[in-house]
Amino acid sequence: MSTSLDIDLLRSFAAVAQGGTLGAAAARVGRTQSALSMQIQRLETTCGQTLLHRTGRGVRLTSQGERLLVHARRILHQHDEALADLAGTGLAGALAVGCPDDYAAAFLPHLLSGFARLHPLARVDVVCASTPRLREGLATRALDLALVSTLWGDAPEPGMLPALRREPLVWVASPGMDPRGWDPLPLALSDPDVIDHRAAREGLEAQGRRYRVAYASGSLTGLAAVVRSGSAVAVLTRCAVPSNLQVLTPEAGLPELPVLSIGIAFAGGDPTPLAGAFANHVRDVLPTL
Known about the structure:
With 289 residues, the protein is α/β, with parallel strands linked by helices. It is built from nine helices and eleven strands.
């Protein structure tokens, strides 16, 4: 195994991993499919590992390929950030970005600080809201792009960057609270058209478990405060659970919840260069957080 990884090979490998086919990746990096295939072979020789499985529908990462992809994205991001910093270059302008409240605290500080280093002349305005409200902002072009939640396994929407990260939904309660003694079960839920709200109610109804919505809010802070008081249980994404709340285990008797996929949706048409740069930044960084 070589002791050096070539940046161009890593960039081509990341493009293949994102595109899912050599054809899609070749168009993105400006190479022929045969040249791209040779690059992947060279990278596999360098690593001493098989990184891709070729299938009739495209390519699939091996377990070693998935491991390398995490490192490749981090290396490429730092490489490009260093060049932009030394050259004093970067895009300028204003960008309106939407983000669900539960992802904001976990991911936004890293995403925004890294993007600011790459593009110091860009101004990013952030709107935190639920995915349905963010989609409304995209439809009216009040937002340029937004991180949105979909159910893991659902087909991606046209033009959307899908499946940048998986986030499980979990039941959350105050420390020591046992929901098995509550009838009906008090719930603290987000807006009725949000996935976690629907998943909680549909799961309990399928289970035949009685419940009542004791508190409803689109604010993560408000939901956490009610749960912390011991007055209700909530459904949150795992990354958003405060350290002073407990994630309930299956022994609590509550229904299993789905897994979410975090993707990026744009306001329509081709994204602006600044929106595209931010989306690429999120695509490279989010899986590493």
